[in-house]
Amino acid sequence: MVTTVHGMRRSDALTALAFGLPGLALAVAGAFHPHALNYDSAQRWFLLHIAGLAVFPLVGVALAALMGRRRDVLAWAVRITAYLYATFYTALDVISGIAAGYVTRQLGPDTPRPDEVRLLFRIGTPLGEVGSWALLGCCALVAADQLYRRGLLALPGVLLVPGAWLVHVDHIFAPVGMTGMGLIGLGTAWLAVLATRSTAPSDAAEVLR
After folding, report:
1. Is residue 61 a contact partner of residue 21, using CB atoms and an 8 Å limit?
2. What pLDDT, in 10s, does the model give residues 77-134?
3. Are 130 and 84 in contact (CB under 8 A)?
4. Of the candidates 103, 86, 94, 83, which has an alpha carbon nearest to the alpha carbon of residue 39?
5. Considering the entire predicted model, what is its pTM?
6. Do the beta carbons of residue 66 and residue 191 sit within 8 Å?
């Protein structure tokens, strides 16, 4: 089947969108994420984390999908770390995001934060730490793998590593965390497009299967 140049460009754009959208969407959400949780910010805090419930795991899904159907040890390490990120970071989103935001809003204005809300953060924060470390490990593995397999063409994929570090230190808060998620989105998108342009047809097809 012959693919036109125009078709390839459209295919590249769709691939980049599919793989990069989760990280880029979370970066945009970070611009609206309150830096502190109180009665006035609780509704937005709650709603952003409701939306994040559907998007945070997709960052891990996109990274794992870059491995296609490979069965080597590194590919499985990427899948496992992506899974750990998706599960533990979702726990952070549910506990410190959805639950804490909802309870704070229901307490009403001018109400001091009770111990019960502090306890939500006490459990949510360490779970999120596990998830963010897993994300960092996953991104480092993907970047190293792609540099080894594709050489300097994969260099933009290294953006995954500083991106994951910024998310680790500052969630998706602006400007640091949102920048990190943006870098993850861009790096993932680039590596996905690179795979479709690979000189090895079987490798290119693996990503999209």
Report:
1. no
2. 999 999 999 999 999 999 999 999 999 999 999 888 788 899 999 999 999 999 999 9
3. yes
4. 103
5. 0.89
6. yes
